[in-house]
Write a structure and sequence with these properties.
Length: 85
């Protein structure tokens, strides 16, 4: 294991290029979600390091819950999740 400085650690966390998540197809998303919500869930899962800053009333709660459900399913039975507001 290589020791890094705190600045190097932060620089690595700030690299948002590329995909860091996993692939979700639209048919894997719960059908209760509206089309725009489904698209955001697919996008968020693919990115892996994405936040949803949707406007009031667009369904951020259901988007977060579905993204968490798919993430936990992807990670396996021992996985846990936390949504911070």
């Amino acid at each position: 294991m290589t020791a890094t400085t705190y600045a190097e650690f932060l620089a690595a966390k700030g690299d948002f290029r590329g995909e860091h998540g996993f692939t979700v197809t639209p048919d894997q998303v719960n059908p209760i979600l509206l089309p725009h919500q489904r698209d955001i869930v697919v996008w968020a899962c693919a990115g892996g390091r994405r936040a949803v800053f949707a406007a009031f009333g667009l369904g951020k709660t259901v988007i977060q819950l579905e993204t968490m459900r798919l993430s936990l399913r992807h990670l396996g039975s021992d996985a846990r999740g936390l949504i911070v507001c």
